């Protein structure tokens, strides 16, 4: 179940011709639209912190500033990043066109409440006639059923091999979501985009806080190759349309748990679909002084090319793990740190531990545990190995 | 000319059996010794800032603390990192043995003035009988001629395909140096080691300051894969033995320039010898607010796997350059930044610039210029592309 799992939303995913046709001539979907029918139009969003933000990010930051959004339009086949004022005008025109077409159907939508997301190659203008044609077609295909939600999820795929969708429900609400990209294939162009919908009755400030917490614990802990996109965007929209909704508001703890679950599921799917990767790696740092320190230590290992190539080579090279942790300022004593790879404590007390030949790295899943012995906090970062396919995909992408 | 270019130094490089024999049975050199005969024994050193520092780093930090060193012993074939107290004892024993053997030849050397450097795989103990045998043999082969200096440079090679040596002279001094490693093949295990000698008459504090400035402008601006070794060490030793030396001290500006030249030459040789690399890339940031900001911007690009794979694919993907600069906090306006790749300004004012097909990336040398338009400072970082050979070498190394 995708973004239409929640009541009050319709979606569409169409082929507008922004992406190349398949060898058999089939046109892949490349324009998605999600419409919130209300009664509430609460929305929140988290954007890339890259200062070279794409035009749709700059636009959507303005749209979201009042906490309301009526619709989201997303396209693959072009990131509309580093395109200057003309690129921003393209985004603006897209939002205007979405509003115009929706208004013609009787929907109450203003252009200033239409979020825009784009993903694809940086530094090229979008094919606007194709994109606007896709918008017109998507408006006519908006549907509340599950298949429509899945078509929207398909339309935002770039190098993704499968769509990413997830949902969770409570007694008084449902959360549905879709995501695309990241993975290690090409996050710098592929971008991570996600739209999460809910029919919960929830104040905008609560939705905003819940989204930031969920993103912190999910997408921000999936670190495929350390590169930050110009387009990353995560959007949450709440309609308040659940039939059993308590008008006084959802149970916030229950809602947070469901939102975390959907976002963590989507983040795990992103890492799992890194086609160039041979291993999905979970790096857990335990017994850290703080959760932030645990995250810092895990992320430093996740960003070490030497560690990531070692895992590709099925080599439990714990020295590279220690070396990566040693570049951070987290609290630990190099003479007491322990490291396990797939259950074998190959490093004990900062030195040689159990027999490294006992480590089995033939499977796809790798679990690294780093015990800092400095406190009681922990955090896990998900990443991939660095493979020939990563080099191939990313060296061949735009040429 | 290597470390024996300067008067007052002898060197040796011998095969001790720490490294595997070549297919034809030839034993590669793997133990080097450099002895300062004085009259001065001034020394300075810069070490890795990795908190997981190898035993020889911990030892040498103690040795250098009084600003005096009599000799340096270096081995390849093992890093002696993450080896705990037994590894430290091995280093200590090595220094004691060097001093003992040198004393037997009449040299005035104490173990507490013997620097130790090691390079090779992390997390394994050294073969001490082999190493000590190499030390004994190296002591008998110490020689002031150029060939001996070159043998020392050969003995510290790991994945290096050629030795790295350099020298420069002034009216009253000569500077000679050798280096190994980094390169992109496996800096996390290969380590960057360098020993620079001079016969200048120079106060220890001046030598220390000159070395730190030279390292800042050379080795610290060669960033192959962003990984920091547990063993990186750069050592400078001054004998004051130049026949025309002014007893009141060398011209410090002239000495600094020569030392910078030698260190920059060695750093460039390290980047040039990254066998896995197909391109040597110089990333210059110009018109930055400060030199530090210029370095930060260039280094962020040098560490982007997406940029490095694009160059491997001969793709002047300037969007990935902007995206990397956008993750920093340096002063720049995304709407005015310009980027040139091999002389073609592919990005102007943050958007599409001159025709990218004009960029010729078929050669080995790549020059990126990032114009921040925020001031008058500049800095250049040297790096390599990310290739299939990098993945291959680093995934296959220890298994």
Task: Give a short synopsis of this structure.
By secondary structure, chain A is α+β, with helices and mostly antiparallel strands.
Topology overview:
The structure is a homodimer of 399-residue chains.
Chain A: E1 9-14, E2 31-36, E3 42-47, H1 55-64, E4 71-76, H2 84-103, E5 114-119, H3 128-141, H4 146-155, E6 164-170, E7 173-181, H5 187-190, E8 192-198, H6 204-217, E9 233-238, H7 252-272, E10 280-288, H8 291-302, H9 305-312, H10 318-325, E11 338-341, E12 344-348, E13 351-352, E14 365-371, E15 377-384, H11 388-396
Parallel strand pairs in A: 4-5, 8-9, 10-14
Antiparallel strand pairs in A: 1-2, 2-4, 3-9, 6-7, 7-8, 10-15, 11-12, 11-14, 12-13
Protein name (chains A, B): Arginine biosynthesis bifunctional protein ArgJ
Function (chains A, B): Catalyzes two activities which are involved in the cyclic version of arginine biosynthesis: the synthesis of N-acetylglutamate from glutamate and acetyl-CoA as the acetyl donor, and of ornithine by transacetylation between N(2)-acetylornithine and glutamate.
Subunit structure (chains A, B): Heterotetramer of two alpha and two beta chains.
Task: Describe this structure as you would to a colleague.
Two copies of one chain form a homodimer. Helix content of chain A is 33%, strand content 24%. With 399 residues, chain A is α+β, with helices and mostly antiparallel strands. The first copy, chain A, folds into two domains: 9-272, L-amino peptidase D-ALA esterase/amidase (4-Layer Sandwich); 280-396, ArgJ beta chain, C-terminal domain (Ubiquitin-like (UB roll)). In chain A, the strands form three sheets. Chain A has a six-stranded mixed beta sheet with strand order 13-12-11-14-10-15. Chain A has a five-stranded mixed beta sheet with strand order 3-9-8-7-6, with helices on both faces. A four-stranded mixed beta sheet of chain A has the order 1-2-4-5. In chain A, β12 (344-348) and β13 (351-352) form a beta hairpin. Chain A is globular. The two termini of chain A are 36 Å apart. In chain A, 63% of the residues are buried. At the A-B interface, α2, α5, α9, α10 and β13 of A face α2, α5, α9, α10 and β13 of B. Chains A, B: Heterotetramer of two alpha and two beta chains. Chains A, B: It holds the Pfam family ArgJ. Chains A, B: Keywords: Acyltransferase, Amino-acid biosynthesis, Arginine biosynthesis, Autocatalytic cleavage, Cytoplasm, Multifunctional enzyme, Transferase.
């Amino acid at each position: 179940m995708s973004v239409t799992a929640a009541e009050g939303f319709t979606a569409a995913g169409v082929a507008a011709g922004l992406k190349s046709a398949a060898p058999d001539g089939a046109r892949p979907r490349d324009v998605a639209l999600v419409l919130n029918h209300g009664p509430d139009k609460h929305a929140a969003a988290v954007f890339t912190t890259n200062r070279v933000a794409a035009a749709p990010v700059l636009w959507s930051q303005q749209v979201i500033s009042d906490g309301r959004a009526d619709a989201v339009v997303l396209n693959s086949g072009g990131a509309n990043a580093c395109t200057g004022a003309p690129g921003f005008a393209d985004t603006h025109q897209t939002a205007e066109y979405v509003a115009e077409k929706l208004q013609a159907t009787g929907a109450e939508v203003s252009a200033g409440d239409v979020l825009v997301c784009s993903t694809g190659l940086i530094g090229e203008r979008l094919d606007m006639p194709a994109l606007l044609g896709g918008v017109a077609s998507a408006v006519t295909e908006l549907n509340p059923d599950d298949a429509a939600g899945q078509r929207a999820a398909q339309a935002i795929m770039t190098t993704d091999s499968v769509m990413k969708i997830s949902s969770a429900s409570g007694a008084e609400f449902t959360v549905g979501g879709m995501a695309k990209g990241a993975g290690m294939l090409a996050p710098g162009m592929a971008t991570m985009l996600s739209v999460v919908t809910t029919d919960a009755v929830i104040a905008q400030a609560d939705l905003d806080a819940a989204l930031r917490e969920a993103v912190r614990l999910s997408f921000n802990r999936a670190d495929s190759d350390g590169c930050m996109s110009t387009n990353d965007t995560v959007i949450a929209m709440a309609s308040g349309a659940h039939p059993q909704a308590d008008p006084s508001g959802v149970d916030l703890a229950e809602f947070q748990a469901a939102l975390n679950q959907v976002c963590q599921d989507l983040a795990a799917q992103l890492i799992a679909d890194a086609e160039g990767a041979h291993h999905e790696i979970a790096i857990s740092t335990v017994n850290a002084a703080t959760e932030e320190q645990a995250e810092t230590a895990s992320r430093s290992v996740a960003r070490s090319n030497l560690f990531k190539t070692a895992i590709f080579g099925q080599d439990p090279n714990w020295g590279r793990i220690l070396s990566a942790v040693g570049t951070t300022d987290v609290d630990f004593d190099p003479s007491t740190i322990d490291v396990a790879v797939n259950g074998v404590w190959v490093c004990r007390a900062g030195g040689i531990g159990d027999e490294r030949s006992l480590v089995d790295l033939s499977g796809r899943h790798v679990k690294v545990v780093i015990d800092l012995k400095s406190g009681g906090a922990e955090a896990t970062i998900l990443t991939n190995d660095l493979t020939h396919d990563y080099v191939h995909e990313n060296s061949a992408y735009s040429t």
